[in-house]
Amino acid sequence: MRLLLVEDDNHVAAALSAVLARHGFDVTHARSGEEALQALVPEGDCFGVVLLDLGLPDQDGYEVCGKIRKRTSTPVIMVTARSDVRSRIHGLNLGADDYVVKPYDTGELLARIHAVSRRTSHEDTPSGIETELRLGPVHIELPTRRVSVDGSVVQLTRKEFDLLALLAQRPGVVFRREQIISEVWRTSWEGTGRTLEVHVASLRAKLRMPALIETVRGVGYRLVAPAG
């Protein structure tokens, strides 16, 4: 797997690159946000994962994550010393697929890289389900991960799309919070509950349809199919 390591500390990068190389990764090292973005211009989705340190010299790592997500669907794992829940939620809401706090165990980091890679490689549309969903003015194309409202494309993060697609495949059905977290994030991590709330709020705002996703208090969420 090709991996883009975004880390400004050369000593840390060299040590981590050596470990990753021993485990079969082809590592490209970027020392700044701009270097990372430049590496992604010609390569696009050729990288399997981006390991993104947030303490970069030229740009805030969160800003870099947002820019990466606008140009590629490559999975992003944030690596940082910021351990508070608010920072995690902010990073995940920007489109990061996982969040690792320093100091970390190398074995755990490798496991997370492989887990993210497995999740994203399984995101192709399963056989036996519709490839396009139409819910009033909302049009969801599952193979291309494209969403539009009244013909206007809406830019969603990876997890926002996954959440919307899950709910839209069974309009009116209540999905338990635990079920959504398991299906979309494929984890039972306790902090994901707050992240789910953030993603629901973001979807309502981006689609400009606050009533589209209904909160079922104490249970979870369901999609209310709009008329038209």
3D architecture notes:
The protein has 8 helices and 12 strands. The protein has 228 residues and is an alpha/beta fold. The strands form 3 sheets. Strands 2-1-3-4-5 form a 5-stranded parallel β-sheet, with helices on both faces. A 4-stranded antiparallel β-sheet has the order 6-7-8-9, with helices on one face. The chain has a 3-stranded antiparallel β-sheet with strand order 10-12-11. Helix 2 (33-43) runs parallel beside helix 3, helix 6 (158-168) packs across helix 7 (177-185) and helix 6 crosses helix 8.
Layout of secondary structure:
Layout lengths: L1 E5 L3 H13 L3 E5 L2 H11 L5 E5 L7 H11 L4 E5 L4 H9 L4 E4 L4 H16 L10 E4 L2 E4 L4 E4 L2 E3 L3 H11 L6 E2 H9 L6 H16 L5 E4 L3 E4 L5
Parallel strand pairs: 1-2, 1-3, 3-4, 4-5
Antiparallel strand pairs: 6-7, 7-8, 8-9, 10-12, 11-12
Helix pairs in contact: 2-3, 4-8, 6-7, 6-8
Protein name: Sensory transduction protein RegX3
Keywords: DNA-binding, Phosphoprotein, Transcription, Transcription regulation
- Strand composition percent: 15-25%
Q: From N to C, what is the helix and strand string?
A: EHEHEHEHEHEEEEHEHHEE
Which strand order does the major sheet show?
2-1-3-4-5
What about the largest sheet? 5 strands, parallel
Instruction: Give the radius of gyration.
Output: 18 Å
- As residue ranges, the low-confidence spans are 124-129
Question: Rough shape?
Answer: elongated
Beta strand count: 12
Distance between the termini: 45 Å
Q: What is the helix content?
A: 40-55%
Structural class of the helix and strand makeup? alpha/beta
Our count of helices gives 8
Average pLDDT: 84
